[in-house]
Design goal:
The complex is a heterodimer. Helix content of chain A is about 30%, strand content about 15%. Chain A is α/β, with parallel strands linked by helices. Chain A has one domain: Thiamin diphosphate (ThDP)-binding fold, Pyr/PP domains (Rossmann fold, 3-Layer(aba) Sandwich). An 8-stranded mixed beta sheet of chain A has the order 2-1-3-4-6-5-8-7, with helices on both faces. Chain A is globular and about 70 Å long. Chain A starts with about 35 loop residues before the first helix and ends in a 5-residue tail after the last helix. By secondary structure, chain B is an alpha/beta fold. Chain B has 4 domains: about 200 residues, Pyruvate-ferredoxin oxidoreductase, PFOR, domain III (Pyruvate-ferredoxin Oxidoreductase, domain 3, 3-Layer(aba) Sandwich); about 180 residues, Rossmann fold (3-Layer(aba) Sandwich), CATH 3.40.50; about 80 residues, no CATH class; about 120 residues, Rossmann fold (3-Layer(aba) Sandwich), CATH 3.40.50.920. Helix content of chain B is about 35%, strand content about 20%. Chain B contains 20 helices and 23 strands. In chain B, the strands form 5 sheets. A 7-stranded mixed beta sheet of chain B has the order 11-10-12-13-15-14-20, sandwiched between helices. In chain B, helix 4 packs across helix 5 and helix 10 packs parallel to helix 11. Chain B is globular, with a radius of gyration of 27 Å. The chains are: A alpha/beta, B alpha/beta. At the A-B interface, strand 2, helix 3, helix 5, helix 10 and helix 11 of A face strand 9, helix 8, strand 11, helix 10 and helix 11 of B. Strand 2 of chain A pairs parallel with strand 17 of chain B. The complex binds thiamine diphosphate and iron/sulfur cluster.
């Protein structure tokens, strides 16, 4: 018997299973877009067939990072900007876990920007959800990397002189093999996109537009939105990198002009994930590392048996 | 020269094969039955620049590089001349000869490569040779190597010449070259070795320098290892199968050894974008059920402060290696110092704690690496192995049996699914991961994917179920429980302690030190006792939790204590005084921070002038700081 019998368990999963009985301290404000992400995720997980015990949700710090408190799975609420390195190591150590990382736009595109670029480049098999509310929520409303140019906040009282970051383009150029944008106001699309992101083999980046009614009163509520995968105006092939790039550029401009485009922009399904590549190089064990420590019959090799000759 | 030890220095430019040649030479002497110890000096530069390695060999165990040396093989720096521009890098051409003369003992031997070095360019060369009674052998090593094979093989020619003068049996070298070299380069090397040997034997009076290369015999098989090798093997033997890192000298050595070995052992190595990520990956891997490590040197370790704190708060076991070099900031990348002690002890915000072990010898590097893992996993706490550039690169022989240990893949208080069933859960089946009531402060953990083990962990303060909590009672209970682990670890360490005073039990004086200075201090203790001063030493290589009782007993038992460390701010003395709460009036500091480790003679001199005679140290090399009073 595997030491991790919750993994791969086939059974009906009730979405209520993901709701903790211990009420989290009320951290999210009424009307916060983050509730939308939670809802979609709770719907998507059973659809992918993932139980709470085979799901590891790793979050950063921010209102977004509190997602763990609301979702009852294995969870690790880490540090501001550091969800990705923690999550991808877990995905390497045990590739059979459903590893999801989540954080805010400040968390993921600001302080954690370096990790974002590198995790995308390496194409780790995991899903990354960024709650993009164009603001720092938890620290009370400062300008974030996705705030529009000219955005005024207490720390940028004359308006931001900075051009907002382009997370979709950034993910694509960095090497993510699945890039999508969805919005909390659009729960069905959000659920579908999360399902596909989780089922994708490789790094799936979902820029999740959420609203922060408390600090970002100017923020458009992302309605009306257009689903580019459904709309006749946007016929394109999400497996075509050039198309995706072009469309992302357009989308990222239009967001700040008030036109919200969402959907799956890019997917590369035949590219092996990092885990797969590493396996082929003989640098990743076949079975999860963790299994071994619970396996009494595992034959632990001793260093000197194999390597000591070079010291003689 | 009638020393009963050989201290052979090979000097040249970085990239000239100095390191590999010296390693092979040391290994050959070890195989011949001697005890060896190497010391490496190199600049932060890839090719060219003055670099040397010393190989000290003696029939008795050697614990340090010794004082000075008695045999110079000056190969010349083949990179000193810039071929593109025909330019010279100042006086670097003759550095392998000129830079090394200060430490060469009276009656010593100099072999230099006539093909690359001209002693006419070396200031006062003839006078100094005469004054010091040095025996000089100019040889066209480069020409000889060129004739037989390739210019780079002039190292081999130098070794052949060394053997002719010292009487070392060529067979030892040949056998080693046969093992270490592929056939196609072995043949020409062998040719060069023998030709150089013959030329020197025939053309020179090799008996003129009175060289006694000692003879010895080992009772059991020996291995030539560095501190970095030993740390890596300790980790592997303890079941570590995950490493993540970012290169930084000298930590890179452990990282490299692990990366080259882990895939073969079914493990994982990740080179990542920075040190924050590196340590965070180790935390993530450990959370997901692997025995994991990361590490860096001072500057990179600074970035690890964040994930280190996370590991402590989330009670995720992890081992970090800190290979010190001279700081602050980028400091001196290739020079040893022990200046990161306080950084490692106190980094990270809040009432944060970790285990810190500082091995003093290659054997201890293996032992402490294992202990660091064992404590980290048994007590769910980060542990740091603190060592430095000196211990990381120096090679010495250790009995093979020291490494002959059973693997220990146990994960401490990590539950199986069957055990999880017996544990308290919330109503909806969530595992109470952070229970308050435990014997030793350690609450058992589960691994993601285990049935019945579901829990939340966070870097925020949290309640028993892992939920974020700012409840004052819970806060106190959790802090107390995390502190309780430290007492348990101290008791555990005491039970398995490697601490033992060195020297006569009833000694009048004491020396305290930590980490890589241990061997040098022990040699100094031997000499002081031989000179009639009664001294013993204690290397305090378990630094956190601090072994208060052992150190107190040691300090109590002597009149005065000299605290020897390689930094300018007496960090270890400060720690000792803080932990013991008094004895400030007894603790005098001997400090060195010029980028070179202590030599035994410096400690002897420092001790005699400052403690015994109550005088001032002469030179600027070392600094004496008298006792402070309580
Ligand atoms: C190293 C570090 N720097 C700063 C902070 C303070 N901090 C907490 S949350 C946050 C910003 C959160 O903004 P975002 O990631 O956009 O998430 P949101 O709260 O909007 O969901 C900051 C700066 C921190 N916790 N750690
Ligand atoms: S501050 Fe904004 S992001 Fe945070 S919970 Fe409130 S509404 Fe949501």
């Amino acid at each position: 018997m595997s030491a991790f019998s919750a993994i791969g368990e086939e059974r009906e999963i009730d979405r209520d299973e993901y709701t903790p009985t211990v009420e989290p301290q009320a951290t999210w404000c009424p009307g916060c877009g983050d509730f939308g992400v939670l809802k979609s995720l709770k719907q998507a997980l059973p659809e992918v067939g993932r139980t709470p015990e085979e799901t590891l949700l790793v979050t950063g710090i921010g209102c977004s990072g509190k997602l763990n408190s609301y979702l009852d799975s294995y969870g690790f609420h880490t540090l501001h900007g550091r969800a990705l390195p923690v999550a991808r190591a877990a995905a390497l150590a045990n590739p059979e876990l459903e590893v999801i990382a989540a954080g805010g736009d400040g968390d993921g595109y600001g302080i954690g920007g370096n990790h974002f670029v590198h995790t995308a480049r390496e194409n780790h098999d995991m899903t990354y959800i960024v709650f993009n509310n164009e603001i720092f929520g938890l620290t009370k409303g400062q300008t974030s990397p996705t705030s529009p140019k000219g955005h005024k906040s207490k720390t940028q009282p004359h308006g931001s002189a900075k051009t907002p970051i382009r997370p979709l383009s950034m993910a694509l150029t960095s090497g993510a093999s699945f890039v999508a944008r969805t919005a909390a106001v659009n729960p069905n699309q959000a659920r579908d996109i999360l399902v596909q992101a989780m089922e994708h083999d490789g790094f799936a980046h979902v820029d999740f537009l959420t609203q922060c009614p408390t600090w970002n009163k100017d923020a458009r509520q992302y309605v009306p939105y257009t689903d580019i995968n459904d709309s006749e105006d946007y016929e394109f092939d999400p497996t075509n990198r050039a198309d995706a790039q072009e469309l992302m550029r357009e989308t990222e401009d239009k967001l700040y002009e008030g036109e919200v485009l969402t959907g799956i922009y890019y997917r590369e399904d035949d590219r092996p994930s990092y885990q797969e590549e590493k396996k082929q190089l003989g640098e990743l064990p076949e079975e999860p590392l963790a299994e071994r420590y619970f396996d009494e019959d595992y034959d632990w090799e001793r260093s000197y048996d194999r390597f000591i000759d070079q010291h003689k | 020269m009638a020393d009963d030890e050989l201290i052979w220095r090979i000097a040249g430019g970085s990239g000239d094969g100095i390191a590999s040649t010296s390693q092979n030479f040391a290994k050959a002497l070890m195989r011949a039955g001697l005890h060896v110890f190497t010391h490496r000096h190199y600049p932060s530069r890839i090719r060219g620049g003055h670099t040397y390695v010393e190989v000290r060999a003696s029939a008795d165990p050697v614990k340090s590089r010794g004082d000075g040396y008695n045999f110079l093989l000056a190969l010349g720096d083949s990179f000193a001349r810039n071929p593109q521009e025909g330019a010279y890098y100042g006086n670097e051409e003759v550095k392998p000869l000129s830079e090394n003369l200060d430490d060469l003992r009276e009656g010593g031997v100099i072999i230099y490569d006539e093909g690359l070095l001209d002693p006419a360019d070396v200031p006062d060369f003839e006078e100094r040779v005469e004054e010091n009674d040095w025996h000089v052998f100019p040889l066209d090593l480069r020409g000889l190597a060129r004739e037989q094979g390739r210019e780079v093989m002039r190292n081999t020619a130098g070794v052949g010449a060394t053997c002719a003068i010292t009487g070392i049996d060529l067979e030892w070298i040949e056998e080693l070259m046969a093992d270490a070299m592929p056939e196609e380069i072995f043949e020409p090397n062998l040719e060069i070795l023998e030709t150089a040997y013959e030329q020197v034997s025939e053309n020179y009076d090799v008996d003129a320098p009175d060289i006694n290369v000692p003879e010895g015999e080992h009772e059991e098989e020996q291995l030539l290892m560095s501190g970095s090798d030993a740390i890596a093997y300790g980790a592997i033997d303890e079941g570590c199968r995950f490493i993540s890192g970012y290169p930084m000298t000298p930590w890179t050595e452990v990282f490299t050894i692990m990366s080259q070995n882990l895939p073969e052992l079914g493990g994982i190595s990740e080179q990542v974008e920075d040190e924050i990520a590196a340590a965070a990956l180790a935390v993530g891997a450990s959370h997901a059920g692997a025995k994991a490590m990361s590490g860096s040197s001072g500057g990179g370790f600074a970035l690890m402060s964040e994930p280190l704190g996370l590991a402590e708060m989330s009670e995720t076991p992890v081992v970090l290696i800190e290979a010190m070099r001279a700081g602050p900031s980028t400091g001196m990348p290739t020079k040893p110092e022990q200046g990161d002690l306080e950084h490692v002890l106190y980094t990270s915000q809040g009432d944060s704690h970790r285990v810190v072990l500082a091995p003093g010898t290659v054997q201890e590097a293996y032992d402490h690496s294992r202990t660091a893992f064992r404590l980290a996993y048994d007590y769910q706490i980060p542990s740091v192995v603190l060592y430095d550039q000196k211990l990381s690169g120096e090679l010495t022989n250790v009995p093979a049996s020291h490494f002959d240990r059973e693997p220990n893949p146990t994960m401490g208080k990590t539950l199986t699914e069957a055990e999880l069933e017996e544990q308290p859960h919330t109503e909806d089946g969530k595992f109470l991961r952070f229970q308050h009531e435990t014997d030793d402060g350690v609450s058992p953990r589960s691994i993601p994917g285990q049935k019945g083990g579901r829990y939340l962990v966070t870097g925020n303060e949290h309640n028993e179920a892992g939920h974020i909590s700012e409840d004052p009672d819970n806060r106190v209970a959790q802090v107390n429980r995390r502190f309780q682990k430290l007492d348990a670890i101290r008791a555990d360490l005491d039970e398995n302690s490697l601490l033992a005073p060195y020297g006569p039990e009833e000694a009048e004086y004491g020396i305290l030190t930590f980490g890589s200075q241990q061997g040098t201090v022990e040699e100094a203790v031997d000499r002081l006792n031989a000179n009639g001063t009664s001294v013993k030493a204690l290397a305090v290589n378990e630094l956190a939790p601090y072994p208060v009782e052992s150190v107190e007993a040691f300090v109590e038992s002597v009149d005065e204590v000299l605290v020897v460390e390689m930094n300018a701010s007496a960090q270890f003395r400060g720690l000792t005084q803080k932990e013991l709460g008094r004895y400030g009036e007894k603790l005098h500091s001997l400090l060195k921070y010029n980028g070179n480790p202590f030599e035994p003679a410096e400690i002897v001199e420092g001790f005699e002038t400052s403690i015994v005679e109550d005088g001032e140290l002469p030179g600027p090399e070392t600094k004496f700081v008298p006792a402070a009073g309580d």
